[in-house]
Design a protein that fits this description.
Blueprint: E1 5-10, H1 18-33, E2 47-50, H2 53-62, H3 67-82, H4 100-112, E3 130-137, E4 142-147, H5 162-169, E5 179-184, E6 190-198, H6 200-203, H7 207-217, E7 225-230, E8 242-243, E9 248-249, H8 254-259, H9 265-287, E10 298-302, H10 319-344
Parallel strand pairs: 1-2, 1-7, 2-3, 7-10
Antiparallel strand pairs: 3-4, 3-6, 5-6, 8-9
Length: 357
Amino acid sequence: MVEKFKILSIDGGGIRGVFPAMLLANYEAELKAKGEEKWQVYQNFDLICGTSTGGIMAIALSLGIPAKEIYELYLNNAATIFGNKKSFLRRFKFAAHNREALEKLIRDKFKAFHSGEGGEDPRLTHCKTHVAIPIYDLMEGRPSVLKSNYHPAFVRDFHIPAYQAALATSAAPTYFDPYSASYIDLNGLEKPFQNKVDGGVFANNPTLNGIIEAQKAFNLELKDLSVLSIGTGHQRFCDAGIDKKNNHRVKYGINYWMLEDGKKRLIEVFMQGQTQQAQNLISILKNGIDKREPDNFNYIRIDTQLDESCPIEMDEIDKGKLKKLAEKATIEFQNNATYIIENFGSGSRWTDSQRTV
């Protein structure tokens, strides 16, 4: 049996990243309990795609950081990252949060798992497996995907410090300012890295990106792939147009879409719409338009619906709510453990000898 090319995809969703972090922590714990030598995520996937919080996680996992530590980082620092939200009036002109705390947490964590000399920041080239991280480039006015050097044409992104890539993909509009910085590349040249925005504006669910990368960068066919796609929990966005409190038609102005009840409905519907369409297209690839084709590749999507008993915003700081979301992740892992371990628990094709630099 030919070993499949294994793709892990992690959605965006802010602090709701506790869901994929806990699910993957369960996955690693299960492999470790079975005595598997390759029990970490990066040892079992050939390509990890992640957007926004999923991008932070994709890079962290690829640097060798255990999922349990990522989960603990999120759970224990939610209030540090999101607890000083600007006042309602100031948010008309400024992003809701400063990123200094997030930057320090990520940068310190990434450094701690990098064995480079002189305490240098790891770069995308130091990832122990391939990564693809969507961002939106406001300087150029176009979407972009930051990639480690897994193809001869990819000569730019692998120089970028890993923490800068993570902060770029997680610069969600209205939550954080666009990310701007500079870095010294591996040739000693200073490079600008300006005005980057959360990749969730076009690829909150980056699974389809990963499938296309596998086909075009690795010259693989669909039958060669096994794909694990993990969401961050979703609140189903439906609206019949009736205001139940006042029994009249909803007024779909700025107040409704961005302000009412403290909810950013516009961002939620964009994120959910893209995520759902990615799933629709993947379904067509997998089983055809009428779903009569046999599976063209291995694929599983794991997510959870956030109902009224567990409403969690992307900048939630209530640790109790986050623990409920983590419990949902544990339940979802238990429900799918057999499939996950069988298809994503036997190591990957990746070895250090296959690195391009």
